[in-house]
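User: Before I run my own analysis I want an independent prediction to cross-check against. Here's the chain; please return only the structure tokens and, at the end, one sentence I can use as a sanity check.
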Amino acid sequence: MEAIHIPYKGGGQGIADVVAGHVPMMITSVQATKEFGRVGSAQGLAVTSIARSPADAGGSHHARLG
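Assistant: Structure tokens:
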């Protein structure tokens, strides 16, 4: 996978650009994006922790994905 770093001053503009389709993905906190996943405007892939996040009970975690 190839990725380009886009230096946003905060997560809000990055999330808005993902939802609008201007950028394909971002790495951010579960808390910042949980509502977007709930309503279906964005999809979380996984958390990077060893264990599943209590804030995202239905999601996968990095260790589980291999």
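Sanity check: The mean pLDDT is 78.
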